[in-house]
Protein 1
Amino acid sequence: MTEVEAKKPQESLQDRLAQVVELLHRQKIVEDLAYRQGIGQPQELIDNLEHRQNLVELQRKLEALHPADVAYILEALPLDDRLTVWQLVKSERDGDILLEVSDAVRETLIADMDDHEILAAAKDLDADELADLAAELPRDVVHELMETLDAQQRERVRSALSYEEDQVGALMDFEMVTIREDVSLEVVLRYLRRLKELPGHTDKLFVVDYDGVLKGVLPIKRLLVNDPEKQVAEVMANDPVTFHPDEDAYEAAQAFERYDLVSTPVVDKGGKLIGRLTIDEMVDLIREESESEVLNMAGLREEEDIFASVWKSLRNRWAWLALNLITAFVASRVIGLFDGSIEKLVALAALMPIVAGIGGNSGNQTITMIVRAMALDQMGTGNGFRLLRKEAGVGLLNGLIWGGVIGLVVYWLYGSWSLGVVMTAAMTLNLLLAALMGVLIPVTLARMGRDPALGSSVMITAVTDSGGFFIFLGLATLFLL
Amino acid sequence: MTEVEAKKPQESLQDRLAQVVELLHRQKIVEDLAYRQGIGQPQELIDNLEHRQNLVELQRKLEALHPADVAYILEALPLDDRLTVWQLVKSERDGDILLEVSDAVRETLIADMDDHEILAAAKDLDADELADLAAELPRDVVHELMETLDAQQRERVRSALSYEEDQVGALMDFEMVTIREDVSLEVVLRYLRRLKELPGHTDKLFVVDYDGVLKGVLPIKRLLVNDPEKQVAEVMANDPVTFHPDEDAYEAAQAFERYDLVSTPVVDKGGKLIGRLTIDEMVDLIREESESEVLNMAGLREEEDIFASVWKSLRNRWAWLALNLITAFVASRVIGLFDGSIEKLVALAALMPIVAGIGGNSGNQTITMIVRAMALDQMGTGNGFRLLRKEAGVGLLNGLIWGGVIGLVVYWLYGSWSLGVVMTAAMTLNLLLAALMGVLIPVTLARMGRDPALGSSVMITAVTDSGGFFIFLGLATLFLL
């Protein structure tokens, strides 16, 4: 990737987006006009002066933008406008921009490119960047790309592709400056001056021996403040944070966050330096992790291009809806068990959703707490029982307080003390159930080796719905009828 | 803050936590024993050899840890163990550790310190770090602290405190290396060597004129690869990304993410350099933002210490529960309107939660999409109508598909075609309502200048619950009875 120095935007991103949209609209009016005047044929349209001027102005605007800003604009445009802009972008910038857009939008852009264009876009990318894109490129294009690479680069792409998406190996890059420990800082400074430029996020140089085994790191800060006569070995940090390529990338990201790192070496089992992790990749990972948490909680399978077709959106959303439908159906059957009771006392039908709803809300509060504690590794040191006790306490108190309030309201509305008491009791029991399951569900999912965040919200709601209906209607049947 | 070089942990964090917990438990057994043997008095206990050995080992373990790791362990311990560990931490590290823990845990630690200890912990902190802690420290301690500072430091703390938590000014630090543009790189290198150490995250030096106005930045990378004879002015970047102290900090974080920045200057209206933003603060902010989104979606007011008392948890959670109770009550009243219909056809009571539940789930999917698009500034360029149309399309299709499936199941269960058709129609209408409100609620909240994420999930559920009951029971009353 050719590194682009970010410049202070003269206008905010929204302003620049608005300008592009404005130009696109002007463009459409011109096309419309040309079409109505009967000069809608491609050649004639291109001859149209105003049309051409518009395109030139748009292209000029796009050229002044950082690839990440172009990516942002592409994300914010509906498909037809998005492709108009995409075609105006200079082909040598295509690769950098493809790296910046979301997966969903990248798919729409690649679908619009022919093999030749894809090859041109990919040819200036680094091995790790190629590996990032490879999964979404046509298979024969990837094959052709690999042939153009030298042996080292090809090996690097293969290596990056051999790791799972969530492993350190898939996120590392290979742009590193390595030095020897038995030279002076002066020599290092002279060596750096011979390089045309340093890789982005170079806050430390990696010290390796003749076999490529990592001996330590030389922070640039130390290089700058120490006497140039000193040897690297005297100044370097001997025991830096390192990662293995098969480690969990998210744990690496947490280490970056915890220790305020900018870059770290990645070494293999033998201690040989094979790559580097940088903070920019880690920030993206942190962002993605928390986004997927939000998406999963809302029952979306993955990130969705906001202008995705109705059909694509359906596919992204159907799984959770179907699951929800099944759990709602189960809850419905639970109610069906008490048909007779509801016929005798129709107020039960109106009150039962309150019991179920509060249980779901409270259960989700508990589960969010627990999932978060698990994500931060704060669980699993025998704290489970203590947390269960606390959550049960919260549930009990909430049940007595809010159940009591609702019980009074029910008495006031329906004039029946016993109905009020049943309501209070049902709410308290359902909140206790919510607390219990709010702790047990994520803990059990984790024990089974599954992601405790994924689907736990749907499960707790299923339990508190069916459970709430059963508890309330059951108590009412026992004590009121 | 004294900078601590992060070292590669020999064991994972969990292992180290487990070791501390193990030592704490051993400790407790000794205390128990001592108590049972009647030597439970403080002085006698301290004389107990085993007890003392344990404490020494624990202290040794803690000393070897990075402040962030000690913070992690404090977060993961129940209150009594947490305070035992906290008292063992050397007082000169207290300040650094306080900066690393979450607000909720920080409160418990500060509550355990007397004024003298707080003063000792805070005295080595930088101005921006002091400002971070100030809100949670006792007022008279802050006053006393301010008196110990020199005029410049005091001014900086005041300045940092004068900004809102979500403004750039509250997050900037003041540790910067500034240089002049009319010197050679050689001079800069010599100047740096005279400094004992460089501030963390120094990836660029700030070039200022004699009035302190920012002229550009000199990336360290350029300093290292360019000929030392060159002037700073030839090599520096003239047009760097800068921020004003009153800008939104989250937008700054997005710029860091987008442009892969490590540090940026903060300038006042006149272009004068007043501070610096660094990636570590931005990462924390990104993490906090997405966490508060998750917490709000789940109906938690703020981050909660997992070992918070039941009482504290109640306070953190009651507001959303109360709101939920009110919306559930409204839905209950809607059902109450159709008492007569349910009495005649009790199947309605069992089926109505399905309609409401699916509407809520689908509405939450839509709202999450829209809120996300708004957070990324992808809305507001006349896309609203287009999105509404798409979401309505998704809702319509989902209604016909899943409503059709449920309609068939209802026919099979209850043997009534008309009940099945009413079910399908109600589900379709409620999904359309969910799509409509899923777009309108966040857009309206944003127009009113409110955070569209906050509470929109509760609102959509309220609408789809009450709306779903009304639509289903209304259709049934019209067509079936």
Protein 2
Amino acid sequence: MATWIGDDHGSGFTLDFLPYGIFSTDNLDARIGVAIGEYILDMKALTQERVFASIEFDHSTLEASTLNCYAAAGRKIHQGVRELLLELLSEDTTLGPELRDNEDRKKRVLIKMVGATMHLPMSIGDYTDFFIGPYHAQNCTDIFRPGAGLPPNYLSLPVGYAGRASSIVASGTPVRRPKGQFVVNKMPTFGPCQNLDFEVEFAAFIGQGNDMGSSIDVDEAENYIFGFVLMNDWSARDIQVWESTPLGPFNGKNFATTISPWIVPLEALEQFREKPVKLVKRLPYLDEKKECSVYNIPIHVSLEDESGKYDMFKCNTKNVLFSFAQLLAHHTAGGCPMRTGDLIATGTLSGTSRHELGCLLEASRNGIESYEMEAIGPERQKTSRSFLKDGDIIEFRALGFGSCVGQVAPSV
Amino acid sequence: MATWIGDDHGSGFTLDFLPYGIFSTDNLDARIGVAIGEYILDMKALTQERVFASIEFDHSTLEASTLNCYAAAGRKIHQGVRELLLELLSEDTTLGPELRDNEDRKKRVLIKMVGATMHLPMSIGDYTDFFIGPYHAQNCTDIFRPGAGLPPNYLSLPVGYAGRASSIVASGTPVRRPKGQFVVNKMPTFGPCQNLDFEVEFAAFIGQGNDMGSSIDVDEAENYIFGFVLMNDWSARDIQVWESTPLGPFNGKNFATTISPWIVPLEALEQFREKPVKLVKRLPYLDEKKECSVYNIPIHVSLEDESGKYDMFKCNTKNVLFSFAQLLAHHTAGGCPMRTGDLIATGTLSGTSRHELGCLLEASRNGIESYEMEAIGPERQKTSRSFLKDGDIIEFRALGFGSCVGQVAPSV
């Protein structure tokens, strides 16, 4: 379907996606926008001009400075607004006077993306990080416990842990190399992390929550999801390895997590559906009716330093053992309440080949090897990394999601 | 120091403590109160009647329905308000006309505690649970990995993990027995938890936070703490044991955490200071100048069922390897931001003897033995538990903190 807005210049911000975000400009306070082509559609202004009047819901939810209230309005409302936006923006719209042919309104509500600042799209209550990438899990086992095999629970349930919500930042925020405690020559020591890494992940924002003590049925679970973002789970491997027995990662992870600023609604991803890797029969509470419950979305990873920009990895959201519906069914099985704005992430999305990995830990075998990359551009020069250097810019991109980017700042 | 308010009837709500909480009654919306004797002092009403006019700060922080804004005001303000309250309430007050001798005002601002409902005192962003009880850690090791010794990092850093904030509830909220996945006869299965347990903990609420990328100096860290509560970290042991390799506890913990409703300010606990157990020299970032950095506060644990109320354990907040100042210095060492309302807990506070344990896992050696208790009262009948039964009421009490109580509701 084509739009009268113009070319998306390869960003994927076409009519297919229409992701939501929170933006501000020099003249506009933080507000909800929808990405289309090179523009952000100002949803606050559109709402105030009563463009959504035909849809019955609390319109003030679209005038807020986070997406929480709108996300909580439920899928039916999101579908209705999306349909109206599709009609409003499509080349052969029947609503021309509402926007396409209304020059004054276009000036007011179509904001050039290049001049806008993007913010965290939701106020995040709890953040959960899973570990459902089977190739990632196998590689980690091979590195840290060679010959040990995957943990006995690994195929039976989605292994996960609670992450830190306070250090989740919007794409573009610099990430300071953390200091911490790790072991050098068998002695605990304190200093700047020596093994700084990233992790390519995919994450869902919760729209509607569940009450404490209730659980979410696996076949209903998608209705609780508002949409998806790319996520970089920055990791300090030396700190993490030393601290995480027996209770899991802590300071090795809680210093920063970056998300892409645009939340792609669940409705936009139907075309990418795919069957998950199924290795065992699931217990009934995880046995979903839907066959194609995961997504096939490539995520391109690049590294940029003063010498150039390098093509690093190509991961994929399909490299998981469980769907988001299964993650939610498991997470709430004991009655744990989800709240609007909670974030649920997959864990590292490594694939089977060396160029499909999702972190340097795997590519360098915990720093033993160096991973070589080729520059994007005509010169095709090379660089390599075992772990990240200060100044490195790590960027994840996926069509329609925009960019999840962060630069490593030196320790203070 | 005595108060004109009257007897505290053994609750410990004397002038020494003056804890803050959020209460409501049939006639009053949720608001800040201070516990004194059998009463709650209505801080919203007192503020509106300009009783705190002599202290310069944003007085609207005391008119809110959570303690977050007031907690963020900083220690100097809290000290000032506390001094004024001490003067206002002491037997030989020089401020008699302000309250003691003002019958009208007394009627308005002194609310009978027995008729009030207590709520969560803070809006909680992130919740961190540590594992710094050395006797608890040793007992767990003996049960699950006999002969293995403590983890190698255990003495060198405070081991901890992120917990679930959405399922933290105020004392009195029923706790539903969670369903979940665990192993029976070597097969993963799904059903109501068979090994339901509690954990006696002590927790601090953050007052002022730190910026992302900055860290909190160990000798400054107490200034970031608003006050303390008792905490019950309900635990589903069968679920926890199966799920927690390699990333730590998840559904075994995230179904419920209960806190006592009254936050005892840091200032009130000076009299309980004690030296922590020091087993090794700390790295400099954890090496605090203050010697007596932990507290000696007994916590009494009782179990009540239809047959009576039983004296179960007597734990103590001193059974820890690290102070809260050290916990905060470690937690923020890598730049992790604390926010007002974040909750930091010690982990289980077991002591050295059988009657000083902090959970049934230890007392029953993971369900192998039965732990016998004697009833409180003249009949001194006995009962025993390996793990909790439906209907059991678990209560923690400490002088001046009130009660942290929850009843086990059956699975649905």
